[in-house]
Write a structure and sequence with these properties.
The chain is an alpha/beta fold. The protein is built from ten helices and five strands. Helices cover 39% and strands 11% of the residues.
Length: 273
C-alpha cells in the first residue's frame, strides 16, 4: 500500500480504536494508539498472510506480546477481513470474542493469547525455531512493550534467540518510555537499550515508530545480518493523536469524560461517535 494511503489507514484505525474502547467501557487507549503505524505497516505491506486461510502453515506470524493493546490488533484484523467488523461493537460486552486481551482460541488471526507480559516473546521464539527446524520460509514478528522489557523472561528469551541463529525473527519494541504508573526512567530504566540488545547478540535498528516510510524500509531489510535475530526499537508517543493523552502516564487506565471525549473526537476527525 502506498505511504499516503497507509497514513490515512492509520488515522482511520485510531478512530476505530478510540470508538471501540470508549463504547466498550474500558481498555488501554494510549497503549493502543502508540503502535498504530507499526501494525498498519506490517499488516498492509510486510506480512504474508491470507485472512481466508488464517492457519496456512506458510503464513508469516505476528504476536502482540503487549496484549493490553489488543484493541489495536482487533481493529486491523477486522479491517483485513479475519472477522466481521460488526464484532468490534461488542468489545467489552458480555459474551464477546474480543476480550481485554487477545485470545487465540476465539479470534481468527490472533497467533498467541497474550496479556501476561513477557510471554508472547518466548512464544514467538518457539515459532521461529520451529520454522527453522521444519525448513519453512515464514517469518515471525513480535511486538513488545518497553515496560514489558522489565520482565526477566524477556531477557531469557533474548539470550536464546541468538544462540539458535533465528534470523527469521524480528522483535519490535514500542519504546514510548512510559508504563502504567510513570516514566520508565523513574521505575526501572531500560537504558542503554540499544547496547543491551547488541550485547545479547541481536542486530539492532532504531526508528521513528510513527514514520511509515522508515518502518517499511526497516522491516523489508530484515534479516539485517544473516544468522542473527533482528530487533527494531521504535520510538513512539504513547497516546499518539490525542493531545491531552500524549506522554501522560495517568491515561494508561483512564477513559475520557464527556468534555474530553469531544476534544478527542475533534482531534481524531471522528464525527459519528
Amino acid at each position: 500500500m502506498k505511504e499516503l494511503n497507509l497514513k490515512k489507514k492509520a488515522e482511520e484505525l485510531r478512530r476505530v480504536i478510540f470508538r471501540m474502547i470508549c463504547k466498550g467501557g474500558g481498555g488501554h487507549i494510549p497503549a493502543s494508539l502508540s503502535i498504530v503505524e507499526i501494525l498498519a505497516t506490517l499488516y498492509y505491506d510486510i506480512l504474508k498472510i491470507n485472512p481466508k486461510k488464517p492457519d496456512d502453515p506458510e503464513r508469516d506470524r505476528f504476536i502482540l506480546s503487549k496484549g493490553h493493546a489488543g484493541a489495536a490488533l482487533y481493529a486491523i484484523l477486522a479491517d483485513k477481513g479475519f472477522f466481521e467488523c460488526e464484532h468490534l461493537s461488542t468489545f467489552g460486552k458480555c459474551g464477546t470474542i474480543l476480550g481485554g486481551h487477545p485470545d487465540m482460541h476465539k479470534v481468527p488471526g490472533v497467533e498467541a493469547s497474550t496479556g501476561a507480559l513477557g510471554h508472547g516473546f518466548s512464544f514467538g521464539i518457539g515459532m521461529a525455531l520451529a520454522g527453522k527446524m521444519d525448513k519453512k520460509k515464514y517469518r515471525v514478528f513480535v511486538l513488545l512493550g518497553d515496560g514489558e522489557c522489565q520482565e526477566g523472561s524477556v531477557w531469557e528469551a533474548a539470550l536464546f534467540a541468538p544462540q539458535h541463529k533465528l534470523d527469521n525473527l524480528t522483535v519490535i519494541i514500542d519504546y514510548n518510555k512510559l508504563q502504567a504508573m510513570d516514566r520508565l526512567e523513574n521505575i526501572v530504566s531500560m537504558e542503554p537499550l540499544v547496547d543491551k540488545w547488541k550485547a545479547f547478540g541481536w542486530e539492532v535498528r532504531e526508528v521513528d515508530g510513527h514514520d511509515i516510510s522508515m518502518l517499511k524500509d526497516t522491516f523489508k531489510s530484515a534479516p539485517f545480518v544473516s544468522k542473527k535475530p533482528n530487533l527494531v526499537i521504535a520510538n513512539t508517543v504513547k497516546g499518539k493523536g490525542i493531545s491531552y493523552m500524549e506522554e501522560i502516564p495517568v491515561w494508561h487506565y483512564r477513559l475520557p469524560s464527556k468534555e474530553e471525549m469531544k476534544i478527542a473526537c475533534d482531534e481524531l476527525g471522528l464525527a459519528d461517535f
